[in-house]
Design a protein that fits this description.
single chain, RNA-binding, alpha+beta, eight-stranded mixed β-sheet
RNA sequence: GGACAGGUGGCCGAGUGGUUUAAGGCAGCGGUCUUGAAAACCGCCGUACCUUUACGGGUACCGUGAGUUCGAAUCUCACCCUGUCCGCCA
């Protein structure tokens, strides 16, 4: 959500900024809508004030038993009614139109975000860790998983449909270990508080983080009107909704391991094999709520927390700075972490860390106040995957595979696997 | 799911159509007093929007939305939420 006052003051700058995201100029329309809204409201307020005064006089006249005077005043007020009704409807209509228009515009890119319309414009910032040399041709995760008998795509289809998988036995154990490891890291070393939020949310919550009104098609919805969360960012960020938080309490840092549900409406045909793109997957999410002057440094800190997961797992990755056209609508600036997948012979996204500035905070009406100050300010919100657990499982499988199709357990996960150090086919 | 009771400012709580401009209290902030503190006393003490160069002025908000009325925290309707009991249930 954008601040109409800012647009009013800097219309050209606003149009230039949204142009970087491929959006046509909007400021002239918005300003006109705002002008109409304000003119209706001003007149409405004045008339309403007049009515309130007269109504009070009616009360006074009746108290004095001056019925003649009261009747006279009542006809005077009655004359205001029609105009008042028209103005109220007009004001509300303009306000709704303005809010709706503003809520559909993506966030403005930060100044240090590069130009570009799609992923080709992203900038590689650094590479960490080097891909291993394999003395054999590394397999993709689905071949490894099926070879071990621990990744069952047929039963995923049987139980649910395409883009669902049943993970079994030692591999399920490994996935659980990954989640525990990540949560422990973020809570004990980076100060995040572990949460178990609802995985079904209402309209207001889905609106707050920006899924609604534009992207409802990407979500699953229950027949009772709940939305299945596409990421724990949605419930965790909305914890700040409708609050005025004392700035001495900030930052708030939350983490959660939840299932995430995505309809993948626009991804037909992409990544159809394997577990890369599922309707349901587990993810450890990081969310920070900070005062407005702290979000830039918090963004770096959060990205470091996500990178640390990959470093501890000794998985090679690169850090990308997304260009203006490739970011999600809520973000001002986004870093993607892409993990090396030797089976696929390429880097694949495993984390995305975004600074949303005040864009979500305005939608949620999430504010803060410095001690002793009267003025409230919108908080800044940040979210990042730390990491996508399903994809981390894939990355471990492909990077730690052995020639015989078994998978070594990374050192960092050994405390979580109850003695299991190698995943291999057991029994029949 | 059924029955009943509720939802008022940061918190408690009064308020069933018009001097209510939401009483009073607590907490908080400032002041007087005090070596300092406490107590006492005095004052301040919500959010947003519109308007104004400014000082200021105005409007809305008593769970949400609609309605009745010249006028609604108060009356009507719908919905949401909370509590208690019953039923069901991990």
């Amino acid at each position: 959500m954008h601040d109409i006052k800012l647009i009013r003051d800097n219309p050209e700058a606003f149009d230039r900024a949204i142009a970087r995201r491929g959006v046509a100029p909007l400021s002239a329309n918005l300003i006109e809508l705002d002008r109409k809204r304000r003119s209706a409201q001003t007149e409405f307020d004045e008339l309403q004030g007049k009515r309130n005064t007269l109504s009070k006089e009616i009360g006074a006249a009746k108290a004095k038993k001056d019925e003649a005077r009261a009747t006279e005043l009542m006809t005077e007020v009655a004359a205001l009614k029609d105009r008042l009704g028209i103005l109220e409807v007009e004001q509300k209509a303009h306000e709704e139109a303005l809010t709706d228009a503003l809520s559909r515009i993506p966030n403005l890119p930060a100044e240090d975000v590069p130009d570009g319309l799609d992923e080709k414009g992203n900038v590689e910032l650094r590479r960490t860790g080097a891909p291993k040399n394999y003395s054999f041709k590394p397999k993709e995760h689905f071949d490894l998983g099926e070879g071990l008998g621990y990744m069952d795509f047929a039963n995923g289809v049987k139980l649910a449909g395409a883009r669902f998988t049943v993970v079994k036995s030692q591999l399920a154990r490994l996935e659980r270990a990954l989640g525990q490891f990540m949560l422990d890291l973020h809570t004990s070393e980076f100060g995040y508080t572990e949460m178990q939020p609802p995985m079904l949310v209402n309209d207001a919550t889905a609106f707050g983080t920006g899924q609604l009104p534009k992207f409802g098609d990407d979500l699953f919805r229950t027949t009772t009107g709940y939305w299945l969360i596409p990421t724990a960012e949605v419930p965790l960020t909305n914890l700040a909704r409708d609050l005025i938080i004392d700035e001495s309490e900030l930052p708030w840092r939350f983490t959660a391991l939840t299932a995430c549900f995505r309809s993948e409406a626009g991804a037909a045909g992409r990544d159809t094999r394997g577990m890369i793109r599922q309707h349901q997957f587990n993810k450890v999410e990081l969310v920070s709520i900070v005062s407005p002057d702290k979000s830039v440094e918090e963004h770096e800190r959060m990205t470091e927390a996500a990178e640390t997961v990959l470093k501890r797992l000794d998985l090679p990755f690169r850090t990308m700075l997304l260009c203006a056209g490739d970011m999600g609508g809520a973000a001002r600036k986004t870093y993607d972490l892409e993990v090396w997948l030797p089976g696929q012979d390429q880097y694949r996204e495993i984390s995305s860390c975004s600074n949303c500035g005040d864009w979500q905070a305005r939608r949620m009406n999430a504010r803060c106040r410095a001690p002793g100050e009267k003025q409230t300010r919108f908080v800044h919100t940040l979210n990042g995957s730390g990491l996508a657990v399903g994809r981390a499982l894939i990355a471990v499988m492909e990077n730690y595979q052995n020639e015989d199709g078994s998978i070594s357990v990374p050192d960092a996960l050994k405390p979580y696997t109850n003695g299991l150090i190698k995943i291999e086919k057991v029994g029949k």
